[in-house]
Specification:
The complex is a heterodimer. Chain A is mostly helical. Chain A is built from two helices and no strands. Chain A starts with a helix and ends in a 6-residue tail after the last helix. Chain B is mostly helical. Chain B contains seven helices and no strands. In chain B, helix 3 runs antiparallel to helix 7 and helix 4 crosses helix 7. Chain B is elongated. The chains are: A mainly alpha, B mainly alpha. Chains A and B meet through helix 1 of A and helix 3 and helix 7 of B.
């Protein structure tokens, strides 16, 4: 059981990126590009969103 | 210069049985439909990715959804779970101790009380939300794979 939120997010992003790379592309080079762009953007955008939300308390 | 959109390739005649078999295989085991259609490498990758996602969902205490007739979204979540294939029975067995899909309608029904109690135990787990996200994503991935095998079988995609 992985408790790290970041690690869960990274694994989730990697799995989804690999899935869509193989679903939508036929060439290895294109697949790598999709994995990097999709996986990377999922992680980076989530971190940016997390920092934007940080100053706002829940209550 | 013409702005005409090229027409989609016509479905291959006689491919109905092939597409049905490939879709059933894709549901039965993620990636098996692709292997059946000759895309062995791609099928193997899909199998590993979807099963890894599903396995992480179970390991993270994700719960299989039950249809609660008062809540429309539970139909979608349960359908999504079922779309993962027969392997989905594992998560159901692990969550509820048996194979069950429907929550009894009456609030005080003993089975409803027992099932919601089991679900409540799951919700207390720290990683429950991660697990649920992984389980639902595995189902969504397999739905896309079933549609993809259909497209390949009828000749719409290489």
């Amino acid at each position: 059981m992985i408790r790290s939120h970041f690690l869960n997010m990274a694994i989730f992003s990697a799995l989804v990126a690999v899935f869509f790379a193989f679903l939508t592309q036929n060439e290895t080079r294109d697949r790598l590009r999709v994995i990097l762009i999709l996986g990377g953007s999922m992680i980076v955008l989530s971190l940016i969103l997390a920092y934007v939300m940080y100053p706002f308390p829940l209550r | 210069m013409s702005d005409a959109v090229p027409a989609a390739p016509a479905p291959k005649p006689g491919s109905a049985a092939r597409s049905l078999v490939s879709c059933l295989l894709a549901w039965f085991l993620p990636g098996l439909g692709h292997v059946y259609l000759g895309r062995k490498g791609r099928g193997a990758v899909f199998c590993v990715v979807v099963l890894a996602t599903f396995g992480l969902g179970i390991a993270s205490d994700g719960a299989a959804s039950l249809v609660d007739r008062g809540q429309a979204l539970t139909y979608l979540a349960t359908f999504d779970n079922v779309a993962t294939g027969p392997i989905e029975l594992l998560s159901r067995q692990r969550t509820y101790g048996r194979i069950v899909y429907l929550l009894p309608r009456e609030e005080n029904h003993p089975e409803r009380v027992e099932l919601t109690g089991r679900l409540r135990d799951r919700v207390r787990s720290v990683t429950y939300e991660y697990g649920n996200a992984f389980l639902l994503t595995a189902g969504l991935m397999n739905i896309l794979l079933i549609l993809d095998t259909f497209d390949i079988a009828v000749g719409r995609k290489d």
